[in-house]
Amino acid sequence: MGRQLTIAILAITVVALLHSTAAQQTHLVGDKFGWLVPPGGAYAYEAWAETQTFAVGDILVFNFTNGDQDVARVTKEAFTACNSTNPITLKTTSPANFTLDTIGDPAPKPSPAPRGPVTYVVGDDFGWIVPPGEFNFTTGEQDVARVTKEAFESCNISNTNATVATTGPAYFKLETVGQYYFIGTKDKRCELGQKLAINLGWIVPASGYAYATWAYGKTFIVGDTLVFNFVNDTQDVAVVTKSAYENCTTNNTTAVYTKSPVRILLNTSGEHFFTSTYYRHCALGQKLAINVTARSTATSPSGSVAPSSPTTSTGGPGSAPAPFSSAPSKIGSGHFTFVLISMAAFFFY
């Protein structure tokens, strides 16, 4: 019986800063997250690399579980094609160290060749829905408590300062890295399996970032098409202004489409904003903002629009902030932020 190794690939354009006084640095790839197949896709390690400054003599350290992962140093062509059949170096034992002993290629990337119109399915397989992240249950029959690990394992909250929500739907904002534990406290529900543990080894974006995350890295050009897939009579697609998008007000929409699939041709450049007119759907994160570039100037990813100054939302508690910029930002040395759509939805019945 053969053993299948999952090979993840990391590209780092190493621009060596040849300062005579620079000390050798060790870079722990992925920081505490380590080296594995990232749940957030290839962007995870791209974001990590953006926080680092690499110089000749530095060392990359890959930490992983032996037998489950390995590290292959490959050519640019092999990296682009995900072809690991002829690696430059292959290391199968953790920790795997690579010394950066030569200068990389600091030349800017060439402008992409013109392309034809592209059709984007909004949310891909996820579709156009309210991003999950709430506890749905019948008030009076169920509840949900955020508890300690010990209380989670023993189903006993008598000696803990548990946070109990008794009205459904209930929302818990996951703001920091770490482990979160939730249980139902009624009628031995916990003992019967009504419990949820979430291990946040990365930062979970607020629900409003779900579709901004989808838009990240995509280049939207005049002539492209957006396709919104949803269940009829449960969702719709509203074209709105920037102000309506930020404040989740849908009483003055530009257009509303109610039958799936909705195909919207991007025939003008600039910012485009979409949401749903259903109650609280916008406040719960069903909103999309993109920047469309003219075909003659499309030399870099447009993606989601940059954030504006905070505004007061009329969409009620849980209104999502404006989407983040499509350009990667320097987060700071040693800090690694993963962008990942939180799918940690749990439904109580």
TrEMBL record:
Residues 298-324 are annotated as: Disordered. Residues 25-202, 194-294 form the Phytocyanin domain. Keywords: Disulfide bond, Glycoprotein, Signal. One of its GO terms (molecular function) is electron transfer activity. One of its GO terms (cellular component) is plasma membrane. It comes from the Eukaryota. This is Phytocyanin domain-containing protein. InterPro entries: Cupredoxin, Phytocyanin-like, Phytocyanin_dom. The lineage of its organism: Eukaryota, Viridiplantae, Streptophyta, Embryophyta, Tracheophyta. Residues 1-23 form the signal peptide. The keyword Disulfide bond applies. Pfam families: Cu_bind_like (PF02298).
